[in-house]
Predict the structure.
Amino acid sequence: MRKIVAVRRVLADMLGHFYDDDGWSMASHLAITALMALFPFLIFATTLASFFGAQAFADTAVHLVFDTWPDEIADPIAREVVNVLTVQRTDLLTYGVLLAGFFASNGIEALRTSLNRAYRVTETRSFLYRRIQSIAFVLIATIGFVAISVLLVLAPLIGRFAVAQAEWLAPYMGTITLWRIVIASAVIVLGLIAVHMWLPAGRRRFVQIVPGIIFTLIGWLIGSTVFATYLDHFSSYVTTYAGLASIMIAVVFLYIISAIFILGGELNASIRRYLEARARVGS
């Protein structure tokens, strides 16, 4: 009975604070900012990768970003992303690449703002520190994507060598598509850990962010599946928005996953508040 009461209190606190703190508006802000930051980030990363000789990065980056999205949502916007990334740009290794990196960091700042509200903390770090940290996140993500791109190119060679040395590994090697999905999922989990640990003000232990991360992953899986099913059977987006259908679908999808992401932070904060209240009563 006590556990049921605890769950009810935590959920009531989570949903109540989400509503009172304009969670739906923050989800909208985060969704639009994420969409606006996506193209600059991919342009920045692709240009930087080509500078270091990773010419196949564009295709890999698209897979890493969109392989975990439902096909009904990912396919239209992925095609547009490929069109943007395959355009030759000679200016982006000078001022353009810096500008793209700056705009990409805006997406990190939107994550920070939403998590600060969810964790109910006040930001005390300077604007310069926060912006440098956001740009560092973009650079680390870019370097990680480039490294993954190289590994995926080498993966078939490594796989064949491993099978030649140990034939029993053959059934476990899978395909390059499977490896892309596994790696993309790992990137999502590591990204969630990083943003919950270091973006919001204050300090949190790893164990304190695990419930929100699990909630976010499960919520994303359910939300994306339900939305994809809706698009597949009941959607009137194409007839309503015509040529804007793909971008509207992307915005709504990002809005859904943004709300779930913020709720994950709210859950962590609510659990922490409940445990602190229990500790005070016990003392």
